[in-house]
Design brief:
With 486 residues, the protein is an alpha/beta fold. The protein has twelve helices and 24 strands. Strand 22 and strand 23 (438-440) form a beta hairpin. Helix 1 (79-85) packs across helix 10 (381-389), helix 5 (227-240) packs across helix 6 (248-254) and helix 5 packs across helix 7.
Length: 486
């Protein structure tokens, strides 16, 4: 395993201890980490859903160091705004991350490429002897630090938590037969990242979404019809022709797309039900936001359940490769960033201060929208406008392992407990607003069938606010009732 250090670093000419540091992986503290419960003798819920034998969940909106999953385009957002957010400030500071990517926001490869970009920009601005601080040890921060270190520039990464990865968080768990990824288990542009992942020995496989819809009573409707998606696409096209941006909700109404024509079918489902289904199980997981907050003009339906790559062994190999040999100060929260003609001053929550010549800030939009980090002088107006218009989406994952794959129908199941080729692997509910937007059948170990629940938007925020794991588990298990064989 590559050597990496969370260390006490000499950052201001004198030995300044930023945090108690070790070689190797520290235990997360200070923010809600992965949580879970296990039962040695599984039973069933009142709705007939078996109790899982293993359980893990993320709580990104409850984490003060990230405050959400990824950015989304609020009303009025443009490519120029994301680009503006990443522009250098006074030649000394650059903001980078998935939110500054105009081409791949909200993705791992977008964050990675933005980290590389920021590293190159600062390297070009740097003068001989400059010291650079990178705030944040997520994928963008580590990519930036790696770029600078490879060019021989003195760089230190200052991380608020005491682990690497930021919104990528792989947790080793024997009950799941390997790492559980509480950030993104997917890399949405496998072609772009393939060589990077190969060099870091990060295993991947192709994931082709196959959707299935069921009613609340469990009736299997197979592949959802295009009714809802077509309505959303029509509202998007209408919005593009308007002089100013509006929310997706407004576009659906003002365009005349809704109310949708058509009567209820034999199961009582209407075209409006399928529109709600497309919003709650497609748009919300892709953006982390409800239609009332999303830009209608910027909507990208191509991000909804498209074929992608699944990381099967966790992201740790890539994170450690990027961090190898880089000085990383963990458990060190930057509260103030002060720019002047001499460089960049950083103040930590411990009261300590350090000075560098240049800095890269990889804090999420969710953090930038708060007063967690104060900038003096304030960020330029273009940067402030970008932060105000970009939203921070809420998406969480719930990993559940069961004794048997009860959710698979006999016609879809292959011999043994793995899903057959072409069998549904994205399970959804139509006819009600589900707490869990979709269930992903990602189990690749015959002995350990498992589901990954995707919670999005306000449902993700509501469940993340539940501190008690047993209570949170009960909430998500109720959402599995339509998939219990009757």
């Amino acid at each position: 395993m590559p050597r990496r250090a969370f260390l006490a670093a000499a950052l201001s000419g004198a030995a300044l201890t930023l945090a108690a540091c070790t070689d190797g992986r520290p235990d997360p503290t200070g923010s809600p980490g992965p949580t879970g419960t296990r039962t040695s003798t599984p039973t069933s819920t009142p709705g007939g859903v078996p109790q899982p034998v293993a359980f893990r969940r993320s709580r990104w909106t409850a984490d003060p160091f990230v405050r959400g999953a990824y950015s989304f385009d609020g009303v009025g957002t443009t490519d120029d705004l994301r680009t503006a957010l990443g522009e250098p400030v006074e030649g000394r500071l650059v903001i980078a991350g998935e939110a500054t990517s105009a081409t791949a926001p909200g993705t791992v490869h977008g964050a990675y490429n933005e980290g590389l970009r920021a590293g190159r920009v600062i390297a070009e601005l740097a003068e001989e002897g400059d010291r650079v601080a990178v705030i944040g040890a997520g994928i963008a921060g580590l990519a930036a630090a790696r770029t600078l270190a490879d060019r021989g520039i003195d760089v230190v990464v200052i991380e608020a938590s005491d682990r690497l990865g930021g919104r990528l968080h792989s947790v080793d768990d024997d009950d799941f037969a390997g790492p559980v990824e509480l950030g993104s288990p997917f890399v949405s542009d496998l072609a772009t990242m393939r060589s990077v992942l190969r060099r870091a020995a990060v295993p991947t496989r192709r994931f082709t979404p196959v959707l299935e819809a069921r009613t609340p009573n469990g009736a299997n409707l197979g592949t959802p019809p295009p009714t809802g998606t077509a309505a959303i696409a029509a509202a998007h096209e209408w919005a593009l022709a308007q002089p100013s941006d509006v929310s997706l909700t407004t576009a659906l109404v003002d365009s005349g797309v809704v109310p949708l024509p058509g009567e209820a079918d034999d199961l009582g489902l209407t075209p409006t039900d399928w529109l709600r289904h497309a919003l709650s199980t497609g748009i919300e997981p892709a953006t982390g936001a409800t239609a009332t907050r999303l830009s209608a003009q910027r909507l990208d339906l191509g991000r909804v359940w498209r074929p992608t790559g699944q990381v099967t062994g966790g992201w740790s190999g890539l994170l450690e490769t990027l961090a190898d040999g880089v000085d990383i100060a963990g458990a060190s929260v930057v509260t103030d960033v002060v720019l002047d003609d001499r460089g960049v001053g950083l103040r930590l929550d411990s009261g300590e201060s350090i000075r560098v010549q240049r800095a890269i800030v990889t804090a999420s939009v969710g953090v930038l929208r708060t007063d967690t980090i104060a900038f003096d002088p304030p960020l330029p107006l273009r940067h402030q406008r970008a932060v105000s218009l970009l939203g921070m989406g809420a998406v969480d994952l719930v990993w559940l392992r069961f004794d048997t794959p009860f959710w698979r129908s006999e016609t879809d199941a292959a011999p043994g407990p793995l899903p057959g080729r072409g069998a549904p692997n994205v399970l959804t509910v139509v006819g009600e607003t589900p707490t869990v937007a979709a269930w992903l059948d990602l189990g690749d170990d015959p002995r350990r069938p498992m589901l990954v629940g995707v919670l999005a938007a306000e449902h993700a925020r509501r469940v993340a606010a539940i501190d008690d794991d047993d209570e949170a588990l009960d909430v998500v298990l109720d959402a599995l009732a339509p998939f219990v064989a009757t």
